[in-house]
Q: What sequence folds into this?
């Protein structure tokens, strides 16, 4: 069964310029995703999909393949991950006549990516027979007790009926951890809906999850990374 990793990494990030190759704890952040994917031994190929020559150069330095440059129409702010993976699969099929069975889309900004959970994801995908298996983690606070800031400037409960309910009596909620998305090639090609019963969860501990969308996120992630790294044997 042939498996590939696809790492989307466009060059036009706005909120954090050059985000995909910015130094994170001394290394271009995309390097962590590439190295973990290679170290896992799960993939026949690790491919970076990019429109940017600098990203391509760094990706190759860390051992990934960049067999094509992504078309400009798939490198804007609105192109979804599925479209990027589908383009890669179609390119491999049409250009190299290469048939792929399983794909893992790995985000370029995932320095906490761990090969243990990558392997767990593939196993869950195959054991459940679902179309997708992707990383999720639990919310630290009950979402049922979320607050809203009213347009007039005061606070109100999003779900007033839950304010007096003990947190341990509320059902745990989860969110996308933004690290990796295993799926069958066919599911990506058909653009099946991922947030659906077609998917199985790969549950990560919260300390291995940090969205990196702003400079504040970046700083917090580096602090977390240094603490975790200092405690590893």
A:
């Amino acid at each position: 069964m042939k498996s590939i990793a696809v790492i989307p990494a466009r060059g036009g990030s706005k909120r954090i310029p050059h985000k995909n190759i910015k130094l994170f704890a001394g290394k271009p952040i995309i390097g962590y995703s590439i190295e973990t994917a290679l170290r896992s031994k799960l993939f026949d190929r690790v491919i970076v999909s990019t429109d940017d020559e600098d990203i391509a150069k760094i990706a190759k330095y860390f051992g990934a393949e960049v067999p094509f440059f992504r078309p400009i129409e798939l490198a804007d702010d609105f192109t979804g991950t599925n479209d990027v993976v589908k383009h890669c699969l179609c390119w491999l099929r049409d250009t190299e006549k290469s048939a792929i069975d399983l794909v893992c889309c790995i985000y370029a900004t995932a320095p906490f990516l761990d090969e243990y959970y990558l392997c767990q994801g593939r196993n869950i995908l195959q054991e459940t027979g679902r179309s997708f298996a992707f990383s999720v983690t639990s919310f630290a606070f009950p979402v049922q007790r979320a607050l809203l800031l009213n347009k007039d400037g005061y606070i109100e409960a999003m779900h007033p009926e839950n304010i007096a309910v003990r947190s341990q009596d509320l059902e745990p909620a989860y969110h996308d951890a933004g690290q990796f998305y295993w799926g069958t090639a066919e599911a990506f090609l058909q653009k099946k809906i991922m947030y659906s019963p077609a998917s199985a969860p790969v549950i990560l501990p919260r300390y291995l999850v940090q969205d990196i969308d702003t400079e504040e996120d970046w700083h917090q992630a580096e602090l977390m990374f240094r603490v975790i790294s200092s405690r590893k044997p």
Q: What stands out?
A: Strands lie at 3-8, 23-24, 27-28, 45-49, 102-106, 132-138, 147-149, 155-157, 174-184, 199-203.
